[in-house]
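Narrative of accomplishments. A recurring question from our advisory board has been how the design workflow behaves on a single, concrete structure rather than in aggregate. To address it, we present the structure tokens for one chain from the evaluation set, followed by the sequence designed for it. No filtering or post-editing was applied between the two.
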């Protein structure tokens, strides 16, 4: 049986998933790797550990098939790797998307009025989240790096780009348009690396990868035996948008993993947000760019992990469901999980988490309920911004996926507080599916875009049940908590 190998290189683990001819999951392997926190607000990964974990999970699943038609890659976005063009050795740990070390430089960019240029060209904001200031940091702090970069001896890439470089034995230095769009160096209107921004950051353009469509020829690899083509690449949130078949303008998906990332398909219109959402590329196929409005929340499922690992009040993420159900309705806690600042639409890097409404009756059950609710409230913040930004956002249902979407309680509260239907699909591995479809479609194994969209299947719908007055009263409570948390 023919398979497609999908590699999902995420923030906390690497996964390899074999999809069969019918796009059903045949085999999965997963490996976690170390999170390195050198200082408060700094997050790094050991690039070799990422590489080893990818090789190991791929070897696991490849051994279970004798016919792999193509490889698709999806990855944690923005995470920045700079390596030596000759040796392929990274010159610094990967600096992860969550890392805030370049916040002061971003403030300088804002002070000098450069943020408007950035937004106009890249759709993004001057925030440490994106790759550009991380590249600049590496070139400035690793001894001799700037000179080597200027002499063409270094290369930069997001994780997809690094994996492809290694898999093709250094033959290809490429990325796809969705990953390029997250670097803050790529002009998403014109589809080119942006000279003005590269100049401002002193980043020589020779270190940047070639940018391809999401379904394209990214090179071949013989590391698993026969020569296999890499035919699909997309950043993980964009791959989930594809996997959720959000192909029509107005369609919206929200992925609840460590963080939450909501992407709204805006078609061929690059919407300029007035509410500090991001303009980004949803996907690029056959040379045609489809844009999205994105709301990025840094902490979603991670707040549940904090209940488990930080507070120790749950043993398993699943416990939150029963606890939320038995929580005292008269205790109204608001938990603002700004552990690493607030993302969209507030973008307050200095804010830190807070909890409001504590009384003597507040205990573990009320904390668990507040944690699940915080994800619903944050999503409503994003949706309100999207609706204010773009009239096309009016269309109905929110498609959800990611680990935390398994929580029925959280998904029901989400439907209640946003006052709109929430649909959970049968395939929750939408990220890996998106990358697999890109590669399989290009290989001629999987159906066309429309046929693929028709295969999307609902597992469970959540209809809003909360009375309008109650939902608005609760949301006003959240806004008050946010107001008191912001710096
Ligand atoms: N039943 C559940 N209820 C609430 N949260 C959950 C549940 N199952 C998983 N999660 C949360 O989902 C997250 C894992 O989702 P996943 O998509 O694997 O994340 P990532 O790809 O970012 O590592 C964890 O933060 C976990 O706390
Ligand atoms: O690896 P994830 O699922 O936490 O996703 C991370 C995002 O791509 C960051 O922008």
């Amino acid at each position: 049986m023919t398979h497609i190998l999908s590699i999902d290189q995420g923030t906390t683990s690497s996964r390899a998933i074999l999809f069969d001819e019918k796009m059903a999951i045949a085999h999965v392997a997963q490996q976690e790797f170390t999170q390195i926190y050198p200082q408060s607000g700094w997050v790094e990964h050991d690039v070799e550990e990422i590489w080893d974990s990818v090789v190991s999970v791929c070897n696991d699943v490849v051994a279970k098939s004798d016919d792999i038609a193509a490889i698709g890659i999806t990855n944690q976005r923005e995470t920045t790797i700079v390596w030596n063009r000759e040796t392929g050795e990274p010159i610094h740990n990967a600096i992860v998307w969550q890392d805030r070390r370049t916040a002061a430089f971003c403030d300088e960019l804002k002070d000098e009025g450069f943020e408007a240029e950035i937004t106009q060209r890249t759709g993004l904001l001057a925030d440490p989240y994106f790759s550009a200031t991380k590249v600049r940091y590496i070139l400035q702090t690793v001894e001799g790096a700037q000179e080597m970069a200027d002499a063409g001896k270094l290369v930069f890439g997001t994780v997809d780009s690094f994996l492809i470089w290694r898999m093709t034995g250094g033959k290809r230095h490429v990325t796809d348009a969705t990953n390029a769009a997250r670097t803050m160096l790529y002009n998403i209107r014109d589809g080119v690396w942006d000279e003005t921004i590269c100049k401002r950051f002193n980043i020589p353009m020779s270190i940047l990868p070639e940018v391809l469509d999401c379904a394209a020829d990214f090179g071949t690899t013989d590391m698993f035996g026969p020569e296999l083509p890499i035919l699909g690449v997309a950043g993980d949130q964009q791959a989930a948008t594809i996997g959720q078949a959000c192909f029509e303008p107005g369609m919206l998906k929200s992925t609840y993993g460590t963080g939450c990332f909501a992407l709204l398909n805006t078609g061929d219109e690059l919407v300029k947000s007035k509410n500090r959402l991001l303009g980004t590329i949803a996907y690029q196929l056959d040379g045609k760019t489809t844009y999205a409005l994105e709301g990025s929340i840094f902490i979603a499922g991670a707040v549940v992990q904090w209940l488990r690992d930080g507070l120790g009040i749950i043993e398993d993420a699943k416990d939150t469901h029963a606890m939320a159900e038995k929580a005292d309705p008269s205790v109204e806690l608001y938990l603002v999980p700004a552990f690493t600042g607030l993302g969209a639409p507030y973008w307050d890097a200095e804010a830190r988490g807070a909890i409001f409404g504590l009384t003597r009756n507040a205990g573990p059950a009320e904390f668990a309920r507040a944690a699940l609710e915080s994800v619903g409230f944050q999503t409503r913040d994003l949706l309100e911004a999207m609706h204010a930004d773009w009239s096309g956002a009016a269309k109905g249902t929110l498609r959800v996926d990611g680990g935390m979407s398994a929580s029925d309680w959280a998904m029901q509260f989400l439907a209640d507080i946003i006052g709109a239907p929430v649909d959970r699909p049968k395939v929750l591995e939408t990220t890996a599916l998106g990358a697999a479809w890109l590669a399989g479609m290009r290989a001629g194994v999987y159906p066309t875009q429309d046929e693929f969209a028709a295969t999307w299947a609902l597992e469970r719908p959540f209809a809003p049940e909360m009375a309008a007055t109650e939902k608005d009263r609760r949301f006003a409570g959240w806004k008050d908590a946010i107001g008191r948390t912001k710096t």
